[in-house]
Specification:
Structural class: alpha+beta
Shape: globular
Number of domains: 1
Order of helices and strands: EEHEEHEEEEEEEEEHHHH
Helix content: 10-25%
């Protein structure tokens, strides 16, 4: 089975207007979209689109929510003028833990028939229940996938919807490293990274992850609010969702 687990560290470092750093241990699933049913049969702890201790739901991804993730993702790629038939697509994400999940960012790693990483789709969620997809093509050949895009989605009340991102993905046999730099006017605003080691997807490893990182998806949402409170107390500028979120921008575009 190509699907597996990823365990490691997530780091954020804010560079403006002051330095603020955080680091958390995490685990993720790396799910081959051809194996979603097989993954659900791999362990009694895990289900697809049903209740369990751990459960993967297709509808937790894409906009509109997917009924069947692989064909829905292929359709998204076709709309981006990409013919991905025959490609192998791996989704790096968290699944529901006791029915709950929040994924600040998930990554669809899209490889061609020769195993070359051709496209990375970054799916970003915010705490207002909104989703946005960035479809990235590499800007140069090399062992590390590198691409950039303009920031187009409200993520945090302490980050303006401006500037751009540079995304780097280094996909090695035993390790996956992803970094995202948010830059504005040539200066770093925020650096985020994941440094993850591959683990076999088994009931034993799933149980170990559940014990080592209990209620990890609930903790993700909880820590987002803890860090938001700390940033607010430090005096970080607050950007209201009603003024800077996707709905506000749609209203402005529709205005005469």
């Amino acid at each position: 089975m190509r699907s597996h687990l990823l365990e490691g560290v997530v780091r954020h470092r804010r560079a403006q207007p002051f330095t603020y750093e955080l680091e958390h241990g995490m685990y993720y699933f790396a799910l081959d979209l051809d194996e979603l049913d097989a993954v659900a049969r791999r362990s009694w702890l895990l289900s697809r689109n049903g209740p369990n201790v751990l459960s993967f739901h297709d509808a937790d991804h894409l906009d509109p929510p997917a009924d069947d993730l692989r064909p829905a993702l292929l359709e998204h790629l076709r709309r981006e003028d990409l013919d991905a038939d025959g490609w192998r697509i791996t989704l790096v994400t968290s699944v529901r833990v006791f029915g709950y999940v929040f994924n600040p960012a998930s990554f669809f790693l899209c490889r061609d028939a020769d195993g070359v990483l051709r496209v990375v789709v970054v799916e970003v969620h915010n705490t207002h229940g909104e989703r946005h997809l960035y479809t990235l093509r590499p800007q140069r050949d090399g062992e590390t996938f590198v691409s950039s895009m303009d920031k187009a989605f409200y993520v945090s009340p302490f980050l303006a919807v401006d500037g751009g991102y540079t995304v780097r993905v280094r996909d090695e046999p035993g390790r996956l490293r992803v970094s995202i730099n948010h830059e504005r006017d040539g200066e770093l605003v925020l650096h985020a990274s994941m440094d993850l080691t591959r683990r076999r997807l088994s009931t034993r490893n799933l149980a170990r992850m559940l014990l080592r990182y209990p209620l990890v998806t609930h903790k993700t949402t909880g820590m987002i609010h803890v860090h938001a409170l700390r940033l607010w107390r430090l005096g970080a500028r607050f950007y209201k969702h009603s003024e800077h979120g996707p709905r506000a921008y749609r209203r402005r575009e529709a205005a005469p």
